[in-house]
Specification:
63% of the residues lie in helices and 0% in strands. The protein has helices spanning 3-22, 30-42, 63-66, 74-95, 109-125, 132-150, 155-176.
Length: 187
């Protein structure tokens, strides 16, 4: 071998290893997701009866979690659906005002703030996940729930539905796919 090709092989070996070591696995922290779930659960009452009339307009695709995309393994897909649900919710909170006055949500403001902080942290810290596919699966849901939130008379029900559905995703995955999350605590 010529010296230059030896150097090339050496460079490839060295850099491939560095890549393996530094490449983030992008698993979601189980503890952070669990806290996020608890805050969302505790920030208000269960889904209000008067909001049930919107159930036919806001159908979270439950099958998104059971029908694993052929392109991904179970844990990868679970992370993608959880991440995309949080990212979609994050977008809704940034782009829409919460209803005020008579229609104001009876949510605990402190818990909501804490929830939004954790949601933002999870979204910001996991941009290494490629969400193209999961985003396609959830897009019709987010478009419908956004439409309900944008109507003044149904806004608070839209937010309640969003909270119910994100809570369900977190609860279901923490229980059924517990080992897909990273349970190692940061030091
Ligand atoms: C969105 O709304 C349409 C019209 O109400 C409904 O037919 C469809 O099932 C809804 N889809 C989702 C995912 O909520
Ligand atoms: C993300 O995934 C989509 C579809 O699975 C693919 O077309 C795209 O190239 C991927 N993007 C990156 C940056 O890997
Ligand atoms: C799990 O989380 C710990 C603490 O934040 C981190 O050091 C570790 O790299 C993570 N492991 C995986 C597989 O993501």
């Amino acid at each position: 071998m010529k010296p230059s090709s030896v150097l090339l092989v050496f460079l490839q070996l060295c850099c491939f290893q560095t890549m393996l070591v530094s490449r983030p696995t992008c698993k979601l922290s189980g503890w952070v997701v669990q806290n996020t779930h608890n805050l969302l659960r505790d920030l208000g009452e269960p889904f209000p009866v008067q909001c049930r009339q919107y159930n036919s307009k806001i159908l979270f695709p439950d099958s998104a979690l059971s029908d694993v995309s052929a392109n991904h393994r179970q844990c990868r897909w679970t992370s993608l659906v959880v991440y995309e649900s949080l990212r979609g919710a994050e977008l809704m909170f940034t782009e829409n005002e919460l209803p005020e006055g008579e229609d104001e949500l009876t949510w605990n403001k402190q818990k909501l703030d804490n929830y939004l902080n954790l949601q933002n942290r999870l979204v910001e810290d996991h941009q290494c996940l490629n969400t193209t596919e999961a985003s396609g699966v959830l897009a019709p849901y987010f478009s419908n729930v956004t439409a309900v939130v944008e109507q003044q008379d149904s806004a608070s029900c839209g937010w309640e539905a969003l909270r119910r559905d994100v809570l369900w995703v977190l609860k279901f995955t923490l229980r059924k796919h517990h080992s897909c999350f990273n349970w190692t605590k940061a030091h």
